[in-house]
Amino acid sequence: MLSLIRRTILLVSICLIAGTSARANEFAWELSGLAGQADLDPLLDANQTTITATYHFAGVDDTKGPLALASFLDPQTRIAASIGRNRETSEITLPPGVALTIPDVKSESLTYATSGRYVLPGKKWYAGGRYAQIDNDIEPGSLLTDASRHGAAVFAGRYFGVATTLDLSLDRAVDETRGTGVACVNLVFCAAVVPQSVDQTRDTATLSVLHMRRFRSLTYTLGGSVADSSGQAVIHSGAFDFSLPASMLPPGVVFFKPPVIKVPARTTELGLDRYLIYSVAAELFPTRKLGVRIGYAGWDDSSTFDYAYDVAATWFVSRNVGLRFALGRQHAHANLEDTDIAAVQATGRF
């Protein structure tokens, strides 16, 4: 928690400096920094820091409503780039009875991402895309030797009036893992460590809607989405020689040299679970500078996640400097503990 506070102070300072040169009534640049922490005790501890720069080609008018909704109320063509760092410590658990000690996996990854959106004349239709590359640096001595992830997405949407959007996005994420796997004869005896690679590809189609409405001095937004996610995995295990111990031979069978079983390399393809994700969110703005959000997401037919919820508050200290605080919790299946998430984001506009 202390590291999260220190990173937050640094990001706020950067955004305060950037926001001092903002022009009246509009901005072209947004510089934002995010510091987050996820905790799934004792299986996972993760810390994330991300810096993003966004450029709006025609400038964004921020006088049309709440400051947090400026780019929604005045859509402009834009590009963005970000760089992030994530540090994780994961504990590996084995089935009961396996007499093997595996050290925790410590990794540090860098994420490079770029995105863009083109708004057609008339500000009714828009389209764009995203790309991200994640490079992992895994601590020596772990079973994993290399891991990377990259993903791309395209999206298109339309404004209905000035306060409602509907868009469709198509995402593909590819995870590539290289390392070693443990070959077990049964749950008691594991005798070999072999090269292994796992490639996972997941495709997700998401339909989203966002609606804004004003009621006297209040402004609020209602949003929701439904996503259909499916994928496949390819597992390749290298060849290895397995020496059968004498204790596992039939009674009365004696060898001067224990027999060696040659296990060939093999490739296995399997489908990943297909599931739907439903999400809803509402945000209330009692003033132009303040917003409070609550959101919920549920996984249907997922073997990993069940549901998640979050609360967040956005406060613009001035017209061009904003802060966002968020807390969330994600519930998983298989009797795992909930994952607690905390994040702070600072934004400067100029």
Please characterize this protein's 3D structure.
This protein has a single domain (2-349), classed as Porin (Beta Barrel), CATH 2.40.160.40. The protein is elongated, with a radius of gyration of 25 Å. With 350 residues, the protein is mostly beta strands. Helices cover 6% and strands 67% of the residues. The chain starts with a helix and ends with a strand. It is built from two helices and 16 strands. It has helices at residues 2-19, 70-73, and strands at 26-40, 44-61, 78-90, 105-119, 125-138, 144-160, 164-184, 190-215, 218-237, 240-243, 260-263, 266-285, 290-300, 305-318, 321-332, 339-349. The longest helix is centred in the N-terminal third of the chain and has 18 residues, at 2-19. The strands form two sheets. Strands 1-2-3-4-5-6-7-8-9-12-13-14-15-16 form a 14-stranded antiparallel barrel. A two-stranded antiparallel sheet has the order 10-11.
- Tally the structural domains: 1
How many beta-strand elements?
16
Do you know the CATH architecture? Answer: Beta Barrel
Give the neighbour order of strands across the main sheet: 1-2-3-4-5-6-7-8-9-12-13-14-15-16
- Class based on secondary structure composition and strand pairing: mainly beta
- Largest sheet geometry: 14 strands, antiparallel, barrel
N- to C-terminal distance: 30 Å
Radius of gyration: 25 Å
- Classified by CATH, the class is Mainly Beta
Residue windows where pLDDT falls under 50 for at least 5 positions:
none
Instruction: Please state the overall shape, judged from the principal axes of the Cα atoms.
Output: elongated
Helix content: under 10%
Strand content: over 45%
